[in-house]
Design goal:
three-stranded antiparallel beta sheet, 15 strands, 441 residues, single chain, 2 domains, globular, eight-stranded mixed beta sheet, Rossmann fold, alpha/beta
């Protein structure tokens, strides 16, 4: 039984919930109403039919191109955390997360939901949440603020997400020469015909935007399997890379490539550092720094950007690529926090410029979410197509459960990126220099 009580009055209004297969009892609008939704594992999906603005907690927000102008309630509207308006928003966020988690757990435990139905559910609800109630997309209070750690839950993240059987990751993400497994968005909007080409086009765009020149000393801050350094070194004969990575399995993959004469990682121009981003120190500084995807796992943007600044030469440039949302607050998911990305945040599109003290954002870009939607859709197809090989591998749990967790994850994220035609949830890229730099080098 899910019981949701909502205050009615001049500051709050009321809420109407429509649940598929759920019985709803509505209280009188003249007093404090309550809804009691009887639910079982088949009736967790909830559609928000009407939710008035909570108090005066709203803001006029627009995207970088000014194409997303609308009134949106903030997570707290600038009000203290003990205000009724803030507490009401947090109450609703917990209720939304509870229903989403109930559906997710039911799916993981065997509930059959056609992919088309689940996608339709997300397409019917996410536009309302993105456009009108973004505060409900922060299921936990820590999502809204910085933590005291540069990288959060690093060891847990490696175990859950990155130290999985390499055979499975190679097949799902793709493993070619020079494009190694790359766990981030491919660029499809310029006409890429397949996953490999989309990843090449994405890195080509990074090269152009970062302004890489032959002879640069470059730091890859969270280098994954070494795809970005390997591909860039095929383009520049004298570029030298240092890659930092905490995942022992990914480092094992790269060390094998460092002994493979076909790989640029074996050229003597690549240095691998296995260690926690919280603890790394270098005696030298770098001409360029690239970081793809890592900042979604960063708990403290301010400290992380200070770290980057300390590693960058005075006239150097850094480029950060992250998943982002064009809403006033940060976003997360109870399901991905539990099963996929512990303490992962999708920072709002203004977060990096507003949290940087030692670096200034000289240019930024929003990459439409349809790029990641197509990437995740391709990963799902490859994941499904290789089940006969995957089921014999060791995941530390029953394979049927692992498979359902990952299918739900790929469906969830892949569909959310596509809602609202990709205009709210996509990728952000930020070109940064030292705050006191007179201009780009």
């Amino acid at each position: 039984m899910l019981s949701l009580t909502w205050l009615k009055g001049p500051e709050f209004g009321w809420v109407t919930l429509t649940c598929l297969g759920a019985k709803i009892a509505k209280g009188s609008a003249s007093r404090i109403p309550a809804w009691h939704c009887g639910v079982n594992q088949f009736t967790f999906f909830c559609h928000f039919a009407f939710i008035p603005l909570m108090g005066n907690s709203f803001a006029l927000s627009s995207g970088p191109a000014g194409d997303l102008q609308t009134f949106r309630p903030l997570a707290n509207g600038g009000l203290p955390s003990d205000s009724l308006s803030y507490k009401s928003t947090r109450l609703m966020a917990r209720a939304v997360n509870g229903m989403q988690m109930a559906l997710a757990e039911a799916y993981v435990n065997g509930l059959e939901i056609p992919d088309s139905l689940y996608r339709a559910m997300l397409h019917s609800t996410m536009p309302t949440l993105f456009r009108s109630f973004p505060g409900l997309l922060a299921p936990y209070e820590w999502v809204l603020t910085e933590s005291d750690r540069l990288a959060e839950s690093s060891g847990e993240l490696m175990k859950i997400q990155y130290d999985l059987p390499q055979t499975m990751l190679n097949k799902m993400l793709g493993d070619w020469e020079p494009i190694y497994p790359k766990y981030s968005m491919g660029l499809w909007e310029n006409g890429a015909q397949d996953l490999e080409e989309s990843q090449k086009q994405m890195i080509d765009q990074l090269i152009e935007r970062l302004g890489i020149e032959d002879g640069d000393q470059i730091l890859d801050f969270g280098c994954g399997w070494g795809c970005v350094p390997n591909y860039i070194m095929t383009k520049f004969a004298n570029v030298r890379f240092t890659g930092v990575n905490l995942s022992h399995q990914q480092c094992t993959y790269m060390r094998a490539k460092m002994n493979d004469p076909r790989s640029q990682l074996s050229s003597g121009r690549f240095t691998l550092v296995e260690g926690d981003l919280n603890d790394i120190e270098f005696a030298k500084k770098f001409d360029k720094i690239v970081s793809v995807g890592v900042f979604c796992h960063v708990g403290n943007l301010t400290q992380s950007l200070q770290k980057l600044a300390s590693l960058l030469k005075p006239k150097g440039r850094a480029l950060i690529h992250i998943i982002t949302v064009r809403i006033p607050n940060n976003m997360s998911s109870g399901f991905t926090h539990k099963y996929i990305f512990p303490h992962g945040r999708y920072w709002n599109h203004d977060a990096i410029p507003s949290h940087s003290r030692d670096l200034k954002t000289v240019k930024r870009w929003y990459l439409n979410g349809m790029n990641y939607h197509q990437t995740l859709t391709e990963w799902l197809h490859r994941f499904d197509a290789n089940q006969s090989e995957f089921q014999s591998l060791d995941y530390g749990m029953d394979y049927a459960r692992f498979r359902r967790i990952w299918r739900f994850y790929l469906l969830l994220l892949g569909t959310i990126f596509a809602t609202c035609d990709g205009e709210y949830n996509g990728n952000g890229q930020y070109l940064l220099t030292h705050a006191d730099a007179s201009g780009l080098a």
